Automatic annotation (TrEMBL):
PANTHER family: PHOSPHOHEPTOSE ISOMERASE, SEDOHEPTULOSE 7-PHOSPHATE ISOMERASE / DNAA INITIATOR-ASSOCIATING FACTOR FOR REPLICATION INITIATION. This is SIS domain-containing protein. It comes from the Bacteria. Residues 36-195 form the SIS domain. SUPFAM superfamilies: SIS domain.
Length: 195
């Protein structure tokens, strides 16, 4: 067997163990779940954004809320900012940095929640979305991978999951956090499904 297989899995386990032993990160995950629940309890919406693999995570997060996670329940209003026509239009007319912020300007309102995903914590278009969201009274939950990042510092809640040298370990932790957030929402709003 090639040695990188075991080495990769061991590295992933170490990253997860580091997250489990980080009380600040665990508290941020808990606070992020509460923010989502509060938004839904007040009839608000949830948005998500990111680039590349983080966009895929943003899409996954939204579809699990509007579709189905573990059990049948009513659909929850959640949208990832990933419409190709919107992205190409805004990118062409205003620049790539505006693709997420422009969408929020059109659709978001005070009390909504934005899940802003950036492994580096410095993606310019995600940063622009965070700034726009803050101006609109949207609650910002950042999902980052570097402590003290510019996006994390601007967010209302920064869930920072340092996973090591490369973004793939960070993304592996991000998807775990995303699933915990969805479960937190379901447990609060649909407790009968977890009885």
């Amino acid at each position: 067997m090639k040695p990188h297989i075991v080495a990769t899995l061991s590295e992933a386990r170490s990253a997860l163990d580091a997250l489990l032993s980080n009380p600040q990160a665990l508290a941020a995950i808990d606070a992020a779940g509460d923010a989502l629940v509060t938004a839904y309890q007040h009839g608000k919406r949830v948005f998500s954004c990111g680039n590349g693999g983080s966009m895929c995570d943003a899409m996954h997060f939204a579809e699990e809320l509007s579709g189905r996670y573990r059990n049948d329940r009513r659909a929850l209003p959640a949208s990832s900012i990933s419409d190709p026509s919107h992205i190409s239009c805004v990118g062409n007319d205003y620049g790539y940095e505006a693709i997420f912020s422009r969408y929020l300007e059109a659709h978001a309102g005070a009390g909504d929640v934005l899940l802003a995903i950036s492994t580096s914590g410095s993606s310019k278009n995600v940063l622009a979305a965070v700034k726009a969201a803050k101006e609109m009274g949207v609650v910002v939950v950042a999902l980052t991978g570097r402590p003290g990042s510019v996006i994390g510092q601007l967010a209302d809640i920064d869930v920072c999951t340092p996973g090591g040298q490369y973004a793939d370990r960070v993304q592996e932790l991000h998807i775990k956090v995303i699933h915990i957030l969805i479960e937190s929402v379901e447990r609060a709003l649909f407790p009968q499904n977890y009885a």
